[in-house]
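Researcher: Structure for this, please.
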Amino acid sequence: MGLLVEQVRDIESELTFIDNSTHYSAPSSSWGTLHDYGNVTTPKAGLLIFHIDAHKGSTDNGHIRLKVGANYVWAHEEASASVSGHHECFCYVDAGTYDILVEGRMGTGGAGTELSVDKLVCGFVAFSDMVGSFLASYSSQISITPANRETCIGALKQAVFRVQIYGVTAGDQTNFENVGDSFTNGVSLAVDGAQISFDVRNQDAGSGDGAHAEYFTALSVGSAHTFVISKDNANTTVYISIIACPWLMYDILHQPVTLDIPQGSTLYLILEPLDGLADPTKYAYVGKVRAFSFGDATDYYYSLSGTGIQTPTYTFEIVDGQTSLLYVKGSLHTGACISHIAVDLR
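Model: Predicted structure, token format:
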């Protein structure tokens, strides 16, 4: 009958805004500008993706943080040993112009506390069916509803959410709280009324340095999902960015669509790294974990995994393409996505 294809990753709109390998050193043990990388202009709503390398002396700790426009996105404490750390972060932004600024401070112990950064890369990517909450200072509950629609391989089922948070308390430490934690100047996140435990936490190690946390999950499309931040200290400022998209992948099996494929037809996917500097393993499965599982070979009719660009392909000859389940997973922290979906109808 024919081949139906959707390119859900908007490759045409992708841009590399910054690729700067110059080395910049922290000016002092007080916060200061490491480098102002200038303005970037996003053509539509989408993701800014950042990579940066940090270098640390042999003693004491240093700190870096990233600012997009007027808002902080990410922070990290560099360890008290000679290290070179590679970092990455994402944030959702609306179409517009944003200044990209990296701040830092070296440790207070004198010699050996040097802190510097280099190799900053900033790129832009967008997807079909992506929604989000623009990077901003949190003031009240955020509600996000990923839209439902029919795709060429079935109706959308789940969107992957990525929540990125930065918190700072002037003159004091800030700490993100998992379920059961109780910290000074604690900050917690509830999703749909239940507190969550963060997937990534870079806790504040000094007075007013700032803490950073990330949370990933897959939630249903077509329904509103609420995000509420609770702060122990009303003077703590929290910046939050939320991304929701069926075509992002994260570390737990999830279902982007409810398959609706006629018998005898062939399903095609293309799985890709989200950016060119990180290449996690990507997985696709047709089937389901059984009542008694003996591993992938007995749970799934089809599975494929690997790095680079992967092209899962499965023909529904005996297996029913309208009752089977499609699962995917990858690493959202380092970046994986679905870029194309297709079905060859028979």
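Researcher: Any notable elements?
Model: The longest strand covers residues 32-42. The mean pLDDT is 92.
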